[in-house]
Structure formats: C-alpha cells, structure tokens
Amino acid sequence: MADSSARTITPPPHERTSTTLQLTPEQVKQIEINRLKAKARQREKEQEASTSSTLNANSKRPLGVTPAISKSPTAPTASGSKPLKRDSRLGTYFEYDLSKMVNSKGGFLLEDRNEIDDEVRRKEKERERQRARQNLDPPMHLDPSLNPKCVECQSMDIDQTFKKVFGCLVCKKCQNEKPERYSLLTKTECKEDYLLTDPELRDEELLPHLLKANPHASTYANMMLYLRYQVEEFAWSKWGSPEALDAEYERRTTEKKKKKNKKFEQGLKELRKRTKEGIWQRRRDEEHKHVFGALERGQGGTGKQVCHTCGFTIDVEVI
Q1: Does residue 224 sit in helix, strand or coil?
Q2: What pLDDT digit, counting tens, does each position of 153-164 carry?
C-alpha cells in the first residue's frame, strides 16, 4: 500500500470546454496568414545560410556561383587578358581565329546566292504581272441581251480569256468539241507548220497571243500561244491558199534535204582527201634514201659511189 501511494500517477487529460475550441472566421484567416509569413522567414534564413561563407558539416564551402569581382583563383577572367603561350615543341605554325575567317569560295568568282534568289524572284513576279493583265474578267450585265454570247452555241458562258486576248466569243464546251478551230498553237508550231516568221508572230495586231508560264522554268520567257483558226487565216492570206502553203513546205523540205546531203558529201570529200594525203605522205616517208660513201676513183676519169645501206652503186664522172 505504501508503494502504491508513493508511485506517481499521470493526471487525467484536461477537459477543454467547447468555448476554447470555437474560432471565428477572422481568427482562422489571421492564423493562416501568420503561418505563411513564418514559413517565408524560415526559407529566407535557409537561403542566407546556404550562400554564406561558413563551412558546412563536411568542412566545404556551400555550392554557389563565384562572382566575376571575386579574387578567388577559380573566378572567371577575361579571355583576352592572358593569352596562351606558344608551345616551342610544335615548331613554326600560324594561328588562325576561326571566328573571323570568311569563306572565299576557293578563289573562284561565284555569284552571291542571295543576289541570284532576288533576281529569280524579280523575274517570276514580272512574268506573273504579264499574265495577270490578261486574266481580268469584265463584269456581267443584268440584262441578258447585253451580254456577249458564244458564236457556236449562243451560250453566255463564254471564255473571258479568249474574248480579251483573241477577241473570240466562244465557250469552253465549244473549245473542247472543235479543237480543229479553237485549239492553241505554240510559237514553234506556227513557224514550222505554217512557215510564219518571228516578226509576224510578235506583232499582236496581226496575231494576238496568250501568255502562259513556261513549263521548263518559271524564270524563262512566257510561252506565246496562238488560236488555230486565226493562224490559219493569216497563213492562207500570206501564201494564197492551203495548196500553195503545202507546195512551199515541200519546196523548203526538199531544199533542206539537198543542203544536208551537200554538206555530207562535202565532209566526205574532205575526209577522203585527208586520207589520201596521209597515205601518200606515209609512203613517201617509207621510201629508202641512199647514203653514199666516199668517191672511189677509177681509170679514165670515172669513179664509183656505193650506198652503205643497200649497196646501190652509181658511176660518177670526175672532172
């Protein structure tokens, strides 16, 4: 009993009244603000301690960026303040600053790529402007009787490009159905098939032409396309009739073949001449040339000379 009375006894937990646990919303807000401020002050203290010059538990300086004004041997220095010394073991050599080197294209005079690109873009824009002038569509009238109609089917859906360039009122349907009249011809076809000259094809009053982008390269000159029936009408008026055009075409074809054959024969003749001259010269080079020795005097005022190579003997009269 004495021992039990001497042993300490844990007092019972203090019973809090309900009035001490109840907080108003303003008090809860203030408590939260104070907690955040305390955490911010704690982070500032930890940051100051990490960047200070005091040693850590491992007797090392804390990790940090060394400023440029520091006198530490590991502080950053200017790159040009202390140049590296030349190594005498490497012998004589030249130092190059690769950051200042310029590509000289190996000494060749090459055009600047930027200038080429600018020139190409300028030509492309010029070709586009030339084609855009022909592609402007005129407005349509509300009165159907005032709108132009196709000469073949009387449709109002005419091709504005053909109307503006060639002055021809025709629709797309009729163009596809009658290619023998409304198809387009290139400049080369007009010169070869209808025997028209370049000045005639460039005259827009005689033969209007449509400009199209060159399929080979955008910087090349635009293609010049001509309407077939207009080219044929001009060719008939120039040569008189289709039969006269065919006769002129046959005459030129025959004349061209004659010139080609004549040129071939002339070349063959020169080849034969060169061959004959070569054979004749080779034969002359192969001929034996006598090399006679000293004159051997004989009786009666005569003498002999003998060729050292072939033994040919000639009689010589000594005067």
Answers
A1: strand
A2: 888 888 888 888
